[in-house]
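Reproducibility note. Readers wishing to regenerate the assembly model reported in the main text can use the exact inputs given here. Chain order matters: entities are listed in the order in which they were concatenated for prediction.
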Amino acid sequence: MIRAPLSTTSVLDESAAVVRATVSPWAALLLATSIPYRFMQIVFADRLLELGSSASQYGNLLRTTADITCAAFLLSLIGRAVYARACRLASQSGAAPGPEALRVPLTALAGYVFVASIAEAVTYLLFITGLGIAVGAILSGMAIGTMELNTEPGIRGPLRRLARYGGNSRIVVALALVFFCAFVVALLNVATLVSVIFSLASTVGGWDAARWHMLLSIHNRRYVLMIIAGALLVIEPFWIAANVLLVRKAGAAETGDDLRVWFEELQRS
Amino acid sequence: MNEAMNRAAARRCAVHQQRPAFAVCMQCAKTLCQECATQWDGIWYCAACLSTRRAAPAAKSRVGGWIAVIAASLLILFLSTRFMVWTGVLLAGLR
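Running the prediction on these inputs yields the following structure tokens for the assembly.
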């Protein structure tokens, strides 16, 4: 399924085809495992906003919420690993992958958990500078892309691979910018979808439209946080597919596999 | 003396019976011809014992790799929850 040389547009183009092939059931599994993590992030942010300047007096509450968020994060990593494997299988065969997508090698998963944890720590550490989300998203994207290349347990291998494939910095940054725009579009779409659903529901008798209108306004911070989480969930499968394909294409360019595929296609035509 | 030399010359390779013995594996004590014997760290080994010896450090490093990756992941996850709380409290305090 590697059809064109490594570029931002070819990665995006082919990742759309891969997401189409893996929507059912693998994208659904990814969503199911990601929802608890996003929900806990909302709970944490909501508590912080509610506590305000007195948050420092509620250390235990915030630490407990952060620990539960961390457990939900681990669950979401397993879902992401399965989805990344499904994407790789789909890009290899061009068809929807079967149950073999569930057989993620333990060494690959361990390496991925290690690098994804670093990305998570960097996100929170740099959050206050405004760079945290961007750096964390790029790191976690490269981590999921290189996951299946981790064939030996250890901490140096995953970092070395991250540095090697992060070398395509132009494409990596371009992908991050495209997905930032996609996030904004997804945000608007999710907000519109929710308001359309509730407008339609208001036509049903016994529906307290005024109360729901108040709850679903941008002045309600919980609604805004939920919309942000919803938009992140929507773009997540595309982000993972794009990173898996970026690493596969970069690898194919290094080994000459892309030229071999191109030559075979040329011979066939 | 002659008798000892004759006895040594009479020993044959455990794998190739037609060839005279050249060395003895220091692990399994098999006699080996020049082709079957391999010197590693100045000691002669047969192919089977050599591959066992070479596999041992690899297995050890796999266990070491597992311990390192699990310990590092747990440590970083612990730190990331702390960073999450500290950053959150800092930002909430700025509001």
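We highlight two features of this model. Residues 8-268 of chain A form one domain. Chain A has nine helices and no strands.
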